[in-house]
Amino acid sequence: MRILAIGAHPDDLEILCGGTLARYVDEGHEVTMAMVANGDLGSFVHDREEIAGLRAEEARASAGVAGAEHVGLGVSDGEVNAASPEQRRLVVDLVREVGPDVIITHAPNDYMTDHNEVSKLVFDTSFLATLPLLETAHPHHGTVTPLFYMDTVTGLQFDPTEYVDISGHLETKLEMFSQHRTQLEWLRDHDGVDMLEQLRAVARFRGLQCGVDYAEGFRPCNVWLRATTTRLLP
Ligand SMILES: [Zn+2]
After folding, report:
1. Domain spanning 2-220: CATH 3.40.50.720
2. Which terminus of the chain has fewer CB atoms gathered within 10 Å of its CB, N or C?
3. pLDDT of 211-225, one tens digit each?
4. CA of residue 28 to ligand 1 center, whole Å
5. Are the CB atoms for 139 and 96 separated by under 8 Å?
6. From ligand 1's centre to the CA of 136, what distance in Å?
7. Cα-only R_g, the chain
8. Burial class of residue 191 in the structure, from the number of CB atoms within 10 Å of its CB (0-12 exposed, 13-18 middle, 19+ buried)
9. 20: phi then psi, degrees, rounded to nearest 5
């Protein structure tokens, strides 16, 4: 299968579904990790251009740890907007280029606007990508792709209905996040968080819910044309 994971910022996919993506790759699937925004507001010490460049390098390194492809759409932080015609075309074209069997993105109710706008942007455009009269650089995608929402940050207001056992991939998830060196510092200084500790704790908590050591939680976007009888998560 081809899996397209679309997060708001560089590091979101690692935090919210990195173990699952690493497991997909290990099981022989092709994974593309896409970030809509470039992370250019996530620093106390660099200017916007510098931090965006550093974060693109970090995201590429992280995708390399998982064995995934990396794509950045280059929208500035804080400006992700599901109603933007330009951003809608970018994501339509991404879906058409990758041709995914499964899409993973943010839950609609996460803690900050870019995440929630990406959720809506992906919901809207993964349908629009199937319409042949909507012309972009790539031809239309054949089917409306099943969509899964990944956990919210720390799991607040998110009840998973699907779990992925990442007990064998927790260390890879932590190694992926560790590539985001600027964010280990940023999250400590801006949010008072040791993110590696947080990732381990959340994965353990989700694991306790489903009877394994470590897990990640998901919910399917269960609407017409997206529902399926096939297990699409690892
Ligand atoms: Zn984010």
Report:
1. no
2. N
3. 999 999 999 999 999
4. 28
5. yes
6. 27
7. 17
8. exposed
9. -65, -45
Q: How many CB atoms neighbour CB 89 within 10 A? A: 16
Ligand 1 mean position, distance from CA 228 (Å):
29
CA dist 143 and 228 (Å) reads: 12
pLDDT tens readout for residues 140-187: 998 999 999 999 999 999 999 999 999 999 999 999 999 999 999 999
Closest CA to 22 of 149, 162, 172: 172
Q: What is the pLDDT of residues 107-130, one digit of tens each?
A: 999 999 999 999 999 999 999 999
CA of 193 to the centre of ligand 1 (A): 14
**Dist CA 166 CA 146 (whole Å):** 21
Please tell me whether the overall predicted TM-score, pTM, comes out greater than 0.90 for this model: yes
Task: Look at residues 84, 218, 230, 202 and name the one whose alpha carbon lies nearest to residue 163.
Answer: 218
* Sequence spans of domains, the chain: 2-220
CA angle at 38 for the pair 200 and 19, rounded to the nearest 5°:
25
Query: What order do you get walking across the sheet with 215-220 strand by strand?
Result: 69-75, 30-37, 2-7, 102-105, 147-150, 215-220, 162-165
* Nearest Cα to Cα of residue 12 among 193, 214, 151: 151
State the Cα–Cα distance between residues 141 and 154, nearest whole angstrom.
Answer: 34
pLDDT the model gives residue 142: 87
- Rounded Cα gap, residues 35 and 21, in angstroms: 14
